Amino acid sequence: MIVMGAVIALASANCERRSVTDPAITAAVKSKLAAPNENGPINVDVDTRGGVVTLTGAVETKAEKWRAERVAGNTEGVTRVINNITVEAEGGYEGEGAGMSASDLEILSKIKTRYVAEGIGAKVGVKDGVVTLNGAVDDVQTRSRAEYIARATSGVKEVDNLLKVRQ
After folding, report:
1. CA distances from 137 to 47, 64, 167 (A)
2. Which CATH number does the domain 20-87 belong to among 3.30.70, 3.30.1340, 3.40.720, 3.40.1710?
3. Average pLDDT over every residue of 123-136
4. What fold characterizes domain 102-165?
5. Residue 117 has what pLDDT?
6. Beta carbons within 8 Å of 5's beta carbon, 6+ residues apart
7. At 47, is the secondary structure helix, strand, or coil?
């Protein structure tokens, strides 16, 4: 009787899982990835077909890539995740500290700390005191604020603001 109950519960869970539409899955995954948290939002493209979620885009670290996959995989209705996210290797995005000087690491740490505190989801690269900002933000004010924070950080020589404003 207990075994039969478990089988019925599993079967109904699978039926519920299949009843979630692809657009609903895509919306849920995007919402979870964009939600503010201690590591900041992840800005990647999400496509769903038949419950299979495909993630594409670029992130700063391998940790972000795998976090996006975990978030998608733990979303109701997702049957499989194809993770085509790339980890940036140019412009100082070689990961958390990989190949960066101590002064660049300090600059990166200060900027990221402020961005997390203010909910700014920009990607930050630092090379020889030159800060590169990439990604997308919600409005012009956030774009300006991100640049201001970077410029005001001790040790920064120049800021290349490549942030795009979402339409």
Report:
1. 20, 17, 10
2. 3.30.1340
3. 88
4. Histidine-containing Protein; Chain: A; (3.30.1340)
5. 84
6. none
7. strand
Alpha-carbon span 149 to 147, nearest angstrom:
5
pLDDT bin (cut points 50, 70, 90) of residue 16 is very low
- Select from 108, 125, 107, 129 the least CA-distant residue to 161: 125
- pLDDT-based confidence at residue 18 (cuts at 50, 70, 90): low
Give the pLDDT of residue 90: 44
One-letter identity of residue 59: V
Res 11: pLDDT:
52
Token pair in block for residue 38 = 């201690």
Burial category of 134 from C-beta neighbours within 10 Å (exposed 0-12, middle 13-18, buried 19 and up)? buried
β-pair type (130-134, 123-127) = antiparallel
Q: Nearest-5° angle of CA 122, CA 123, CA 128?
A: 125
| Among 98, 46, 96, 90, CA closest to 68 | 46
The torsion region of residue 163 among left (phi > 0), alpha (psi -120 to 50) and beta comes to beta
Q: In the prediction, which pLDDT does 96 show?
A: 45
